Amino acid sequence: MASNFVNAIYKEEAHDRLWIGTRNGFSCYDLARRTYRNYLSPAQPSHTAGTDVLALAQTADGTLWVGTINQGLWQLRRPGTAREQLVPCTRPAGVPQGSVESLAEDRYGTVWAASLAQGLRRYGPDGRAELPTDQSMFLLYDRPHDVLWASTRDAGLLKLRVLPDSLVLLRQFVANPNGVDGLSVSYTWPLLLDRAGTLWIGTIGGGPHRSAATATPAEA
Predict the structure, then answer these.
(1) Which helix (H) or strand (E) holds 123?
(2) For burial by CB atoms within 10 Å, which of 37, 57, 131, 165 has the most?
(3) Which CATH architecture has domain 97-220?
């Protein structure tokens, strides 16, 4: 494996393999053969040595998107085939060129990239989404309800509706410890939606919160 320091894990069910993001590139682990292939690590001289990989996401066409620290966004096209190609994403679509914290694909096939330095950006011709923050941390797309949740470092939790040509802010949840639907702190990070429809919200300094995804966060 590229490194024992693991930042992200994604399972590709169709091919029974794990994609593992590390501090030294990322690896593909074939669960049946128990073999590794490494990418963006010093073992591949043509790649960026020692790239710290934070986020992994696979789109419907099979492309693996790779978010990194200080090396922007990458695509692994046609993974596992003879035509496999690892390429960096270019600037025109408003893609973060620094650190990418999290990735998500919406129902329209748009890839959203969260960045502490540049906020939330979409991989598409419209570039950056206008939001009340420039420090996005984590993304979660709730496909049944067509809602994109975005945790932030400075603006609490954002509930967003994705449209073909725009992004609508449905609601913003910030620190309000005494409120029925308030967060204990505004610094939110990991998000998880379970099978029961409960949205779990991790915070920095305020512990975990939970909420029905269709209603309001956040029940401490």
Answers:
(1) strand 119-123
(2) 57
(3) 7 Propeller (2.130)
- Cβ(136)–Cβ(116) under 8 Å? yes
What is each CA distance from 62 to 12, 14, 46, 65, 76, in whole angstroms?
9, 10, 23, 9, 9
pLDDT tens column, 4-27:
899 999 999 999 999 999 999 999
- Which residue carries 């906020």 as its tokens? 119
The pLDDT, as a whole number, for residue 218 is: 43
Residue labelled with tokens 């991790």? 202
Q: What is the DSSP string of 52-88?
A: -EEEEEE-TTSPEEEEESSS-EEEEESTTSTT-EEEE
Q: Which residues are registered as beta bridge partners of 10?
A: 19
Helix (H) or strand (E) holding 163: strand 157-163
DSSP state of 214: T
Q: Is the pLDDT of residue 123 over 90?
A: no
